[in-house]
Every structure is written in structure tokens, then in C-alpha cells.
TrEMBL record:
Coiled-coil region(s): none
Swiss-Prot/TrEMBL keywords: NAD, Oxidoreductase
Residue ranges occupied by any Aldehyde dehydrogenase domain in the UniProt entry: 18-477
Matches recorded under InterPro entries: Ald_DH/histidinol_DH, Ald_DH_C, Ald_DH_CS_CYS, Ald_DH_CS_GLU, Ald_DH_N, Aldehyde_DH_dom
Family, as annotated: Belongs to the aldehyde dehydrogenase family.
Residues the record marks as active site: E249
The species this protein was found in: Pontibacter arcticus
Descriptive protein name: 2-hydroxymuconic semialdehyde dehydrogenase
A molecular function (GO) term: aldehyde dehydrogenase [NAD(P)+] activity
Length: 481
């Protein structure tokens, strides 16, 4: 049985209490490795190591910090196959997805911030008439906490630690206890890349222990969190009276709006992807599909037929399009929402149940891609986050109506709009209460753009220089000449 270790002060070490948590392979339901069940003591060690490393790291020229991050990016690329296999095994996602999306993007994150920090400069201006000059210095904060979820494990982990480190902070990071393996492998890569001891520390374990201890730690003034809205709320409750700086990337219930004048094939094929990629476990998946009435039946019938042809199965098989859900508990949650949809009057057009996969994956946690119609726009199924391979279809008649439907949840992360009418594309986009809109595409990411949600989908934005601003403290100096 493989042991995962904490990465503290440049070393791979066991948790102080010597306890471990089972790590499951979701495709087989088997325990295949052990995760440190860390606690306050481990967090304390990590914070102390980060504090000790901070003065030297903060003084390290940005170019040198950048070079180390780019070395880490190179090593992620060199280890692509190994990391992708580990991600697929740990999360249940198709290996191909990990090879083409998760791991390349993790490497891009490191490279992007390794270079961005070299272009990140602060402002200065002369005050006319008073002979004074103002300049703003952006100091790193010190020790920052980064907490990440299980759906895109290495991708979202690096999306936080890369800018935090680039800006000169030292980091105590907590990956999800559901998918810790690639963060563990990253600690080995950081050692090989020559990242100085204590600059990045990775403490594994439960959120209510490690995550809570990190959030409450008085020497960690900044928390960057991606995960569920309920967890974000708990973190905010602890952090607010301590006046911590917070970035919260939370849940979503994203609308996918399809007008009758869309490019049909593009809308159809992309919607399959935006509904079911990563088993629907991407915060940006479009789980509510609104279709303009003249196109409704044509779209529905083609969509159902294509989705029925998707191969659900062994994530390691290259023909697999839909792998396993991340855990048994999560699968039960998704199945319970399908039951709720039935109670709320929904009709299951396809899917709707757990799937038994033959062979080595017979005990895995697979759910058939599920399409539901006949629900009202504001029922629970259509307003609560399911985070699985489940989408609903609803017809609409007017722009005003679909905007009302789209905005009716407490979430506001992203939306997709399909139309060939330029004016309508802009008009509708501006009225959607979401942080990210895609028009005639989905998940086309440009790391320079601000990323994040409105309403209960989050606070703050990641991406580009936004994150470097978040991870630095501006200080203005006014000099009278
Ligand atoms: P989660 O909130 O259960 O866990 C996220 C992380 O927080 C994990 O590392 C967990 O251990 C930790 N945690 C749990 N309780 C904690 C506490 N009390 N204090 C501190 N940390 C704690 O989320 P999840 O189930 O891992 O991920 C799925 C959720 O993440 C979905 O809601 C999804 O929409 C959201 N998500 C959002 C984005 C985004 O960019 N907005 C991206 C990916 C996932």
C-alpha cells in the first residue's frame, strides 16, 4: 500500500499523530493508498517552516522565482504520463482527459505565473502642483493558505500556488483529501526543481481538521479557497473577525442558453462536452440547458441520441468518455438529486441510474449521463448544484424569459450563450448575473482574464494580474520633493 506524505520544510514526512485515511480508486471502489490524517500540529509545523522561509523567498528576485516555477512546469510536462495516470486513478476521470486537460493545464499555470511575475509592475505618479510623487509597492503577504477541491485536483491546486509563490509568498497548501495523489507527486517535483525548503508546504488531511486549522491560524493572513459554497461560508465565518484577505471560488448552477439561430452542430457537440466532461464535475459545466422553443424538439432528440452513444466505463480505456464519480458518497448525492427530479415532476429521457461496468471496474461508482425534462425553472433540481452527469432541458420563448430563468439561482459562476445574432449575444451576456460568459464556445480559457463568480459563487477573481494583486499588499509611499 502506497503512503502519501506531507511536504513540510522541504521534506516528505508522516503526520504527527501517525494516523492515515483510506484513499479510494473510484473506478474499482478499492483502497489503494493512505493519506496522512494531519491536524493542528502538522499545520503549525508547516506555518513555522513557511515563516522561516519567507524573508529569503520574498527577497529572491522575481526572475529567479519565475525560473524555479518554470522548472516545475517543465518537470510536470516531463512526468505527464505518470501524473495523468495518478490523476485518473485518484479521481475516476478518463485518463485521456487528464492527459489532455488536467496535467497540461497544471504545467501552464506554473509557466504562466513564472513569466507573469516578471511583467508585474506597480504604479507611480507625480502630483501636479504639489511637487510630490506617489509610488505603490506591492509586498508579498508572508504565509498564505491555499485550499483546493477534488474535481480538477492538480489543475486547481497549481492555479493557486503558482501566483502565490510567484508574488513572493510562502504557502501552506491543502489539497482535497478525496484526491491527494498528484499534489503529493508535485512535492517530489518541487524538491527536484530546487524550490527552497519551506517555501511551499503541503499538508494532507480532512477539511474540518487541516483546512479549519489553516483558516483559523493567526499567522496566515490570506486564504485562497476553491470548493463548495457551504465550505466557503464556514471559512468566511472564521476569517472575517480575523480580518483575513479571502478569495472564494465556489459552486455553480450554470445556464446553457441555446437560441434557434445558433450553429446547430457546434451548439450540440459543445453542449455534450459542457454537460458531461469530467462526469459533469466541473464547476463550469452547463447543467441547465434552455432551448428556444422552435429548436427544442430537434435539439432534444439529437442531444439524447448522442449522449446515449457516450461510452461509460474504465477510465483507463481510451474509448471511455465518462469515467467514475469521485466517491461513493458523491455518487449517492447525485442519485438522490435524480430521485428529487422525479418527485418534482421531471421525466428522465436517458440515464437516471448507477451503471455496472463489467470487469475490473464492476464495483466502481459510475452514473449514466442523465437528461431530464419537464421541470419548472425554479424547482430545487434546477436551482441547487448537483455536480454530476445530470442536465435538465427547458424550452423558452423570449429573451426576457430566459434571462429570468438563467438568473433565478443563488449561484452566478458562468453561462454559455449560443446565437449567431451579434447584438443579441452582447445584450444577453450583459444581463446574466455571472462572472464568466462564453458565447458560441465553452471552457475556452485564457489565463489572462479575470475568473470567478458573482452571488454565492464566490468573492474575488483569479487569473492574470488579478491574482498577483490578491497575493500582494499594496503600500503607497508619498514623497514630497
Ligand atoms: P469542498 O468544499 O467539500 O472541499 C474543498 C476543500 O475544502 C477540500 O480541500 C476540503 O478538504 C476543504 N474543506 C472542507 N471543509 C473545510 C473547512 N471547514 N475549512 C477549511 N477547508 C475545508 O468542495 P469539493 O467537494 O472538494 O469540491 C466541489 C465543489 O467545488 C463544488 O461545489 C464545485 O462547484 C466547487 N468548485 C468551484 C470552482 C470554482 O472555480 N468556482 C472550481 C472547482 C470546484
Amino acid at each position: 500500500m502506497e503512503y502519501i506524505h506531507n511536504y513540510i520544510n522541504g521534506q516528505l514526512i508522516a503526520p504527527a499523530a501517525g494516523q492515515y485515511i483510506h484513499n479510494y480508486n473510484p473506478a474499482t471502489g478499492e483502497v489503494y493508498s493512505l493519506i496522512p490524517d494531519s491536524g493542528e500540529q502538522d499545520v503549525e509545523l508547516a506555518v513555522q517552516a513557511a515563516q522561516a522561509a519567507f524573508p529569503a523567498w520574498a527577497k529572491t528576485p522575481a526572475e529567479k522565482r519565475g525560473r524555479i516555477l518554470m522548472k516545475i512546469a517543465d518537470l510536470i510536462e516531463e512526468n505527464l504520463d505518470r501524473l495523468a495516470e495518478a490523476e485518473s486513478l485518484d479521481n475516476g476521470k478518463p485518463l485521456k482527459l487528464a492527459q489532455t486537460v488536467d496535467i497540461p493545464r497544471a504545467s501552464s499555470n506554473m509557466r504562466f505565473y513564472g513569466t507573469a511575475i516578471q511583467h508585474f509592475a506597480s504604479e507611480a505618479h507625480y502630483m501636479e502642483g504639489t511637487d510630490a510623487i506617489n509610488y505603490t509597492v506591492r509586498h508579498p503577504h508572508g504565509v498564505v493558505g491555499c485550499i483546493s477541491p477534488w474535481n480538477l485536483p492538480l489543475y486547481l491546486f497549481t492555479w493557486k500556488i503558482a501566483p502565490a509563490l510567484a508574488a513572493g509568498n510562502c504557502v501552506v497548501a491543502k489539497p482535497s483529501e478525496v484526491t491527494p495523489m498528484t499534489a503529493f507527486l508535485l512535492s517530489e517535483i518541487c524538491m527536484e526543481a530546487g524550490l527552497p525548503a519551506g517555501v511551499l508546504n503541503i499538508v494532507h488531511g480532512y477539511g474540518h481538521k487541516v483546512g479549519a486549522a489553516l483558516t483559523a491560524h493567526p499567522k496566515v493572513p490570506v486564504i485562497s479557497f476553491t470548493g463548495g459554497t457551504a465550505t466557503g461560508k464556514a471559512i468566511a465565518a472564521t476569517a472575517a473577525p480575523m480580518f483575513k484577505k479571502l478569495s472564494l471560488e465556489l459552486g455553480g448552477k450554470n445556464p446553457n442558453i441555446i437560441f434557434a439561430d445558433c450553429d446547430f452542430n457546434n451548439a450540440l457537440y459543445t453542449s455534450i462536452h459542457s454537460s458531461f466532461a469530467n462526469q459533469g464535475q466541473i464547476c463550469l459545466c452547463g447543467s441547465r440547458i434552455f432551448i428556444e422553443r422552435p429548436l427544442y424538439e430537434k435539439f432534444r432528440d439529437a442531444f439524447v441520441a448522442k449522449v446515449q452513444a457516450l461510452t461509460v466505463g474504465d477510465p483507463l480505456d481510451e474509448n471511455t468518455k465518462i469515467g467514475a464519480l469521485v466517491s461513493e458518497q458523491h455518487m449517492q448525492k447525485v442519485l438522490s438529486y435524480i430521485e428529487l427530479a422525479k418527485q418534482e415532476g421531471g421525466t428522465i429521457l436517458t440515464g437516471g441510474e448507477q451503471i455496472k461496468v463489467e470487469g475490473r471496474c464492476e464495483n466502481g461508482w459510475f452514473v449514466a449521463p442523465t437528461i431530464i425534462e419537464g421541470l419548472t425553472y425554479n424547482c430545487r433540481t434546477n436551482t441547487e448544484e448537483i455536480f454530476g452527469p445530470v442536465v435538465t432541458l427547458m424550452p423558452f420563448d423570449t429573451e426576457e424569459e430566459v434571462i429570468l430563468y438563467a438568473n433565478c439561482t443563488d449561484y452566478g459562476l458562468s453561462a454559455t450563450v449560443w446565437t449567431q445574432n451579434l447584438q443579441r449575444a452582447h445584450r444577453v451576456s450583459h444581463q446574466l448575473h455571472v462572472g464568466v460568459v462564453w458565447v458560441n464556445t465553452w471552457l475556452l480559457r485564457d489565463l489572462r482574464t479575470p475568473f470567478g463568480g458573482m452571488k454565492n459563487s464566490g468573492v474575488g477573481r483569479e487569473g492574470g494580474f488579478e491574482t498577483l494583486r490578491f497575493f500582494t499588499e499594496p503600500q503607497n509611499v508619498c514623497v514630497k520633493l
